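Justification of resources, computational component.

The compute hours requested in this renewal are based largely on the per-chain cost of generating structure records like the one below. Each record pairs the submitted sequence with a full structure-token output. That output is archived, and it is also reused by downstream analysis tasks.
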Amino acid sequence: MVGCQRSSDLDRTVDNPRGYFESTLLRPLNDDLLAMAGYGWDRPPLAPVHWSRGECLLKAVQRKGDFEGYALSRNWVDKDPRLSLTRPFFDHLLLRRVPGLIAFRHPLDVARSLWLRDGFSLEKGMMIWFLYNRGCALSSRQGEDALVSYEDLLEGETESLQRVGRAARLSADFEESDSALEKTLRNVHAQFSDQSLQRNRTGSGALDPETAAHNQFDQVSEVASQLLHEGMRIHETLRASGFDLALFQQCFQVVPQVLIDQYDRLSSEGAPSLEFLRMHEVRPHQELSLGLSAQLSTGQYGQDQEVIADYAKLLETVHALRRELSEAQSGLLAESVQVELADRTQEVESLKQELANAQQDLHAVCSSTSWKMTAPLRRLIDVWR
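The structure output for this chain reads:
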């Protein structure tokens, strides 16, 4: 929005051809923080993490030097969606609270974007939408933070631009008047915003959420339907209020029961995600079947890329050896079964032959003269018994 470009900014990608406007400082640290807490960007915590505990404070002390420019200056802007989950940590890192601007996006737009980019189901997309917004709601403060509609901001709606201006004045030094600042923001908005690049917008809301979801997703489960209806309800409530921050905080106080019940299942979906592979610059032919450990997510990209590439090659070798072993075991098992079956067949044939011989012997005895002559005696003996 402010057109701020740093040498450390993330490169443009097909996902964001205009650029992410995110530095490489925040994302590696946020990934480390989430991994340290046992989570990830695509496995957000169900309950807020206590970022004031000793382990986190030690991390803040260790990284203060990297963020000295942020701590000592007010005239900067940065963003990372993971801040929705880790923001309280940065109060300790920067030794002050930095005002924030929360862009609230339509739930279906978020879910569809995650589906197209990472293959996430509607259920998981809605889980991420809800828990990220809940993190923002729980860490936000009246008078210090601002809430805007993502769609309205992209369209250059006047109230949204004014809120951006008021939020900017809280964290940076501007000599311009409000009207001059709004004009500057509008010019920058026209330069850096392009609505045609918003490929996942749901639309004006003429369709009910169920129909809209079925138009965009192959399957809509009962869990997805419940989460979607709750998300749409919150979105419509906030739009009717003009995106009031206090109401935003209230809407995300309680986690839906269906999300609590399905959290473990949804969190395990899609690991590693395409975002994980892109973040670590793993090429498609090196796609891993298992995620890397937290120890490899150091943020030192040059070293990490070599480690990740070696790790991927080792995984490919291990998987190839496992396939060969499985095929060999299958062949040995089939051969063993065939040998055992042949032995059992031979044993059955032998028993059949013994039975036939016994039947012949019995028939010979019953046909003999002595057997017939002793028949009355055998009947008499049977009577005496």
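The chain has a mean pLDDT of 79. Strands lie at 101-104, 146-149.
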